[in-house]
From TrEMBL:
<dbReference type="GO" id="GO:0008474">
    <property type="term" value="F:palmitoyl-(protein) hydrolase activity"/>
</dbReference>
<feature type="domain" description="AB hydrolase-1">
    <location>
        <begin position="147"/>
        <end position="281"/>
    </location>
</feature>
<dbReference type="InterPro" id="IPR029058">
    <property type="entry name" value="AB_hydrolase_fold"/>
</dbReference>
<dbReference type="InterPro" id="IPR000073">
    <property type="entry name" value="AB_hydrolase_1"/>
</dbReference>
<dbReference type="GO" id="GO:0016020">
    <property type="term" value="C:membrane"/>
</dbReference>
<dbReference type="Pfam" id="PF00561">
    <property type="entry name" value="Abhydrolase_1"/>
</dbReference>
<protein>
    <recommendedName>
        <fullName>AB hydrolase-1 domain-containing protein</fullName>
    </recommendedName>
</protein>
């Protein structure tokens, strides 16, 4: 009976015997968690670095902040601009891109009754990297009012031209350093055409040209001044650099100062260079009678641009032989220079002094 039951019982398959781990595998197991964690961290940093490089234009240029920047109108700020009438004009860059300008003509008291030949002061404004030009018009208007009061009596008309970079406000295309350089040259050509029309009516009329840039706009101002020898038709008399930085490479280090992070080492991939430090050297190579004087206005509490950037630019400009004046608005933040009274006064004094010095060189001492 026992033998029969044994014959009927099914045979069980023998379970496979797993090979014992080799010694090197046993030693490798403790390193798996840190290796996986390190690989994850490297992957995340690599991904972020790639995103910073690919989308750098969206980080540097912010034409959609605030959301209505593209649809806002000059008329929305008419009351804040009081009796200053701003108008929108459109020009074309050399690549055919439509560019919007905000323009204003401010005639000084008694200018029409003066017997001498008129003097036209052209102030070209280059904005920062966010918002659109109409938002800045009330502050610019306040500064122009101070300039009119402080400026020399020989100045008859202040023509202010505010450039809206491509991709900003109602200008077409997308922003880039190369494209905005073309916009800057087109704006300068517009100023030259305007003065030529005035000169056709009065051949003896004079001009003073001041370029005023804020933050990233300071970089485009120095770009234009450094490239101006190619277009020597109209002299640039002065540059007013509000909260400038040396170059975008240094700004990358300022934003990511930690050496153990990879971001500051991405500078070879920057498409926007904006090197005002290098541009100073090119400007210094101009003939002495064509070199503009430079006014640097620094924000004492700047939360974006380190304070030493303005000092480095001022010292370098003097070292290469330029006439540089450096003023610090003590309690101002990066975007607060032109919104506070002390900052407005500083900008207005810089513009008024630039106009006075230019007219002094043209006419001799004012009587």
């Amino acid at each position: 009976m026992l033998k029969a039951s044994m014959r009927k019982a099914p045979l069980r398959k023998a379970s496979p015997v797993l090979p014992l781990p080799t010694p090197w595998k046993r030693h490798f197991h403790p390193f798996l968690p840190p290796l996986l964690f390190t690989g994850l961290v490297i992957s995340l940093y690599t991904w972020k670095c790639c995103m910073l490089v690919v989308f750098q234009s969206f980080i540097i240029y912010n034409p959609f902040i605030p959301p209505d920047s593209r649809t806002v109108r000059i008329a929305d700020f008419a009351k804040q601009c009081r009796d200053f009438e701003w108008r929108e004009k459109r020009i074309k860059a050399s690549d055919g891109t439509q560019i919007a300008l905000c323009t204003n003509e401010l005639e000084c008291a008694g200018a029409a009754s003066k017997a001498h030949d008129p003097t036209y002061v052209y102030i070209v404004y280059f904005q920062g990297n966010a918002a659109s030009t109409p938002y800045r018009l009330p502050d610019i208007t306040s500064i122009l009012g101070i300039v009119r009061d402080l400026g020399p009596k020989a100045a008859d008309v202040y023509s202010t031209i505010c450039l809206s970079y491509r991709g900003y406000w109602t200008s077409h295309d997308r922003p880039s350093e190369r494209g905005i350089n073309l916009d800057s040259m087109a704006t300068l050509a517009y100023v030259e055409r305007t003065h030529d029309e005035r000169k056709a009516k009065n051949p003896n009329c004079k001009s003073v040209l001041v370029l005023w840039g804020q933050s990233i706009g300071s970089g485009f101002v120095t770009n234009l001044a450094a490239s101006h020898p190619d277009r020597p038709k109209m002299k640039i008399d002065a540059l007013v650099l509000e909260t400038p930085f040396t170059n975008t490479r240094d700004m990358l280090k300022a934003l990511y100062p930690q050496r153990w992070l990879p971001y500051q080492y991405l500078w070879p991939f920057l498409r926007t260079k904006l090197d005002s430090y290098k541009n100073m050297s090119f400007i210094a190579q101009l003939p002495s009678h064509r070199r503009p004087e430079i006014h640097i206005i620094e924000a004492g509490q700047d939360e974006l641009v380190p304070r030493h950037h303005a000092t480095i630019l001022a010292n370098h400009g003097r070292d290469v032989g330029l006439n540089v004046e450096h003023h610090c608005v003590q309690k101002a933040l990066h975007n607060g220079v032109m919104t506070g009274n002390s900052g407005r006064q500083a900008i207005a004094r810089a513009i008024a002094k630039a106009v006075h010095d230019a007219l002094h060189r043209q006419n001799g001492p004012e009587k």
